[in-house]
């Protein structure tokens, strides 16, 4: 029975890695679609988002089977219940990547500081998503905490983008709608960072039994 449980737990790890990889693909495709004005990449981000939704259902079903059939206790129970929380955040990451891709129908990202900041944000949040899922699979508490620290960098980048774009709105009111759309893109990326942080916090709970929000 325990061997069967171990196999199913390993499958959960694989499914989580695959879901995380789909999130990375969705963010990358959406960001590149925005940079290049590429509708094919925008569609790829939308397709990845649909695959993430399907993966969420598959992982949820696996977690429920583990809970109902194997009746795990202590650490194993925390790991499975944390995975159920994490997939909700990963699903929201897919939604927000798709939202960015949708904006590419109306936005062409111009050269300038704002573009550079948004590129930096997209790379940072992809790294956060990767590391948060890796920390779960590897049970790496320090990596999970590093993800939480990286969120401060993403927040700083968002504030810089917002400040720069508000300045552009004041200087070029005719392009105000474009700058507002780009603020929305930056906000979506900032929210992706928040969701990756949530994942990392659930990793910490799964390992220690203590959620950072309780500190």
UniProtKB/TrEMBL annotation:
**Keyword annotations of the record:** Coiled coil, Cytoplasm, Phosphate transport, Transport
Looking up SUPFAM superfamilies in the UniProt record yields: PhoU-like (SSF109755)
Primary localisation category: cytoplasm
Membrane among keywords: no
Whether Heme counts among this entry's keywords is no
Give any Gene Ontology cellular component: cytoplasm
- The PhoU domain sits at 17-103, 118-203
- Any one Gene Ontology biological process term? phosphate ion transport
As for subcellular location, the record says: Cytoplasm
Q: Which InterPro entries match?
A: PhoU, PhoU-like_sf, PhoU_dom
Q: Which residues form a coiled coil?
A: 38-65
**Cited function:** Plays a role in the regulation of phosphate uptake.
Record's family? Belongs to the PhoU family.
Q: How does it assemble?
A: Homodimer.
This chain's protein is named: Phosphate-specific transport system accessory protein PhoU
């Amino acid at each position: 029975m325990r061997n069967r449980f171990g196999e199913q737990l390993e499958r959960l790890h694989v499914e989580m890695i695959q879901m995380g990889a789909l999130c990375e693909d969705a963010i990358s495709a959406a960001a590149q679609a925005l940079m290049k004005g590429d509708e094919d990449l925008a569609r790829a981000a939308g397709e990845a988002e649909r695959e993430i939704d399907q993966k969420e259902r598959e992982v949820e079903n696996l977690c429920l089977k583990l809970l109902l059939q194997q009746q795990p206790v202590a650490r194993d129970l925390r790991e499975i219940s944390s995975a159920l929380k994490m997939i909700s955040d990963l699903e929201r990451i897919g939604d927000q990547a798709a939202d960015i891709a949708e904006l590419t129908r109306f936005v062409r990202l111009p050269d300038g500081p704002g573009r550079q900041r948004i590129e930096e944000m997209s790379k940072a949040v992809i790294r956060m998503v990767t590391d948060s899922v890796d920390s779960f699979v590897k049970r790496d508490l320090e990596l999970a905490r590093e993800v939480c620290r990286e969120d401060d960098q993403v927040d700083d980048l968002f504030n810089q983008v917002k400040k720069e774009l508000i300045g552009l709105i004041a200087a070029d009111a005719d392009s105000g709608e474009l700058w507002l759309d780009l603020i929305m893109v930056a906000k979506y990326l900032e929210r992706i960072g928040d969701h990756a942080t949530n994942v990392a916090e659930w990793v910490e709970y799964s390992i220690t039994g203590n959620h950072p929000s309780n500190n």
